Amino acid sequence: MADSTPLLSELNLADSEPPVLHKHLPSLDSTIERCIGDFGWAQFLQATLVSFSWFFDAQQTFITVFTDAEPTWHCTQLTDRHSSCNSASNICQLPQNLWAWDRPKYTSTVSEWALECSSSLVTGLPASAFFMGCLIGGLALATLADTSLGRKNMLFLSCLMMSLSTLLTAFSTNIWIYSALRLITGFGRATIGTSALVLSTELVGRRWRGQVGVIGFFCFTLGFLSLPAIAYSQRAHSWRSLYIWTSIPTLLYSITVHFLVRESPRWLFVRGRKEDAIATLKCIAPIDSATTKTPFTSSFISSLSFEQETWNVDLYSAISVLVERRWAFRRLSAVMAIGFGTGMVYYGMPLALGSLNFNLYLSVTFNALSELPASIIAFFFIDQMNRKTSLLVFTSLCGFAALCLC
Predict the structure, then answer these.
(1) Which pLDDT tens digit goes with each residue over 321-374?
(2) What is the spatial distance between Cα 102 and Cα 72, in angstroms, rounded to a whole number?
(3) pLDDT digits over 105-128, tens only?
(4) Domains in the chain, ordered, with CATH?
(5) What is the pTM of this model?
């Protein structure tokens, strides 16, 4: 009988020492985190600067609450006892000489273009055009941050387009040009939130990504809060000044992003730009951290497994993933349904504040302040909260509160 010992020895040797090709290589994310550490001041400043784009995003999202508000009016012939004008009258049924606006016509688009008797489809067209632009821009530009442009360039171009179109909006001559420019503004800002969120979180370690992601929502609330302050200071001036005062800082911010913000090292690695990625890692790595002992060289980076990270660089490849993986499609559909309902309430309530019999500036301020507790809770407890449960609880509370307001 043949001796089987050598064969068994070879099999045992093969089991105990797997081929080098099958050894586990470090992932891209873990290697980047090894280079930059958990968190540092350079990463914090970069993430905060990127997240500040939400500040200007909030201003353009809700600016029509003030620019398109219907001004208050008064009767001009109060001494005439036979006059049909009173505070409860419909101005569309009154002669023009019996009433007048409380403020100059140029303080609102409604009074300047005589839209007080137009249908809600016309007066609400600018706001609707803005969100239509957001929808179109989200579908057309979403994948560019993952493919050809990158996170930084996408954020820069989005902020630049939003600022320039906002500046041009101040020179609109009628409701149709005004609405068209609002559509372009919405198209430009569509990817600001996603680009800023992804870029800011990819600049820090996994331990702090949740907290860094919440910084953007803080900035959005601050931008929302700044709007009534700017509008109140410009209440005696033209509605056009509000667009000018919000567009110029956004333009300056866009330039700042272009020159000071670093591109995501992860995106640079995936696109094969290793030298640029190494330069970014050197820039954002903590100076006094032990992680700086990591050799930032091309030979060190060449050991990374890029094959598993390059699947998502083809344009619209995410669509094929949704088709191939049913669970991903179901999850995305559920999230979209939740986002639709949440967006109806979140954006609908501030845009309808002008119809309340209350001071508009205070209404917007209180509405914006109500977001701060949620952001604070999320900042401190985002790592402890279950995503699915918290989403279910908070959306249910939101829906119940909205029903109580009816």
Answers:
(1) 777 788 888 888 888 898 898 898 899 889 988 888 889 999 999 999 999 988
(2) 6
(3) 999 999 999 999 989 899 999 999
(4) 26-74+100-311 (1.20.1250.20)
(5) 0.84
